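ERR on first pass: missing label on line 2. Operator R.T. fixed the label and resubmitted. Corrected input:
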Amino acid sequence: MGRAPCCSKVGLHRGPWTPREDALLTKYIQAHGEGQWRSLPKRAGLLRCGKSCRLRWMNYLRPDIKRGNISPEEDDLIIRMHSLLGNRWSLIAGRLPGRTDNEIKNYWNTHLSKKLRNQGTDPKTHHKLTVPPEKKKGKKKNKQKNETKKGSSEKTLVYLPKAVRVKALSCVPRTESTFTLDSNSGSASTSQEKVQSPEEEAREVNMVWGVGSDGDNGEVGIFFGEDHDLVYSSSYVESHSDNVHTDHGTLEKLYEEYLQLLKDEEKPADELDSFAQSLLV
DNA sequence: AAATACACCAACCGCGTAGGT
DNA sequence: TACCTACGCGGTTGGTGTATT
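pass 2 clean. output:
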């Protein structure tokens, strides 16, 4: 695989951006739009690599970025999304307008993981910790850095298939359906009235889906479309061409499996883990 | 006041993958 | 089919500010 040499190229600026560079980048994007990151620096008169430009724009310069403190509501949403998605920061950020994946990732690592630990919850698994949270005793140098390095061998389990990119189906209208499930009765319902064969539906629907539970009201399910608390919003779909598109039958199968697991709360953890493995493509 | 530890976050790095040729 | 480019993502680093000793 040929990989772009990127920032290692000699002569390119690195490190913090200057106001002048910010202005050049902003001006260029306002005039020509985003994209073509590789050639953008040259055309914008910047001595930066395209990656660096993209990052600066996405995380800092974009006009729709919301700056300032993260609200308790956002806090709560991040925690709940993380329990469902794991470290899928871009997906989580997609549910928080104006927030960037980098910001959420940083916020999680510096605030929320600590907060959860103090509440007796493992921030990686969202399960109750068996041992009480470690009291701060003395100062440890680079505690956080050591933790992240150590933690890298211990992957977060994600009960969701890894997002895959699909071709945009621009020729067909997007339909939406929501799929909710009462965890007590186990019954599922869909808001979509249009009757389609699975093949038709798989072909026509740009499906963005997830499997999860709403910790507050006990609602669980696989969610499609928009306007459900745990669903990827349509705005996400529109702003990300890499939406998830998968086979209808597979979805149903996964949904059934997940439902079965939810019904049986006594399932050993390793069985859940193997289920998660099966979801990870 | 100085030294040290810690917290925060912008930026970098490397990998996976879509899409073009 | 193989190769290459560009992009997006998550993990990690390092500079800087703040708190503590």
